[in-house]
Amino acid sequence: MSRAGPTRFTGRTALLTAAASGIGEATAHRLAAEGASVLVTDVDAEGARRVAEEIGAQGGRARHRALDVTSVDAWTEAVEAVTSWTGHLDVLHLNAGQNFPGAAHELDDAAWHDQLRLCLDSVFYGVRAAVPLLSTARGAVVITSSVHAVIGFKGFPAYAAAKGGINALVRQLAVEYAGQIRFNAVLPGAVATALWAETPPEYKAQTIARTPVGRLGAPEDIAAAVAFLASEDASFVTGQNLLVDGGRSISSQE
Ligand SMILES: NC(=O)c1ccc[n+]([C@@H]2O[C@H](COP(=O)([O-])OP(=O)(O)OC[C@H]3O[C@@H](n4cnc5c(N)ncnc54)[C@H](O)[C@@H]3O)[C@@H](O)[C@H]2O)c1
């Protein structure tokens, strides 16, 4: 991406999770292109390294780090890494998630708990670890939720519960840390990432038909929304759940 555009994040440091692919990767590129120093993290350390190296090759400033968001200790170390790199944290993008499908009567305890741990517990761990640095910087947190938090899709009760928990949590945190840290969530609709690679073509076609803008989202569509919410352009926006779904959530199911 060209570095000629606006530089809303010059002098800012951003930590992103699950940034080795998809929405997180696109957001890392977007924030770096707008001037941020970006700590690219993922449980996939090699993937995180690749993204950081690509940003560096394009003239941006990035480091990478292995971070399993479900590990409390790894969160402590990641925040320490930011402190010793730039000394401040301005943007935290909590993006990790994947589906553990299965109707409620079929889902075992392990799948339910794994889903909540990956999508919701991890948000609590990340926020708890980063609040001291973020509040010093008057920072912003953006959490990736999902359209599943606001409409029911058969077969995803644990995912819906975890993402719905994020939506409630951003309101709570926005009030709790008002005047120090802004908290918002993006709720993507169907976005063409690895999560969709193995989706049957007929289901993909049906999803597009039910999406008013007539296409799947691109990771860059979500990155643009994350960048807005993380930037000073959104300084009057906190505690919000922004649907970025091509209108999927406001169209009929016909
Ligand atoms: N793609 C969609 O249609 C869609 C729609 C709504 C919401 N989302 C949400 O967007 C977020 C990103 O999804 P994506 O589609 O870009 O996914 P993706 O599959 O492209 O990337 C997911 C990344 O998460 C990483 N990851 C998995 N477990 C992790 C862990 N424990 N700690 C750290 N990283 C871990 C993976 O290594 C991978 O790099 C997720 O929270 C997902 O629920 C995606």
From TrEMBL:
Keyword Protein biosynthesis found: no
Chain coiled-coil ranges: none
Keywords in alphabetical order: Oxidoreductase
Keyword Nucleotide-binding: no
Short name of any one Pfam family annotated for the protein: adh_short_C2
Family to which this protein belongs: Belongs to the short-chain dehydrogenases/reductases (SDR) family.
Name of this protein: SDR family oxidoreductase
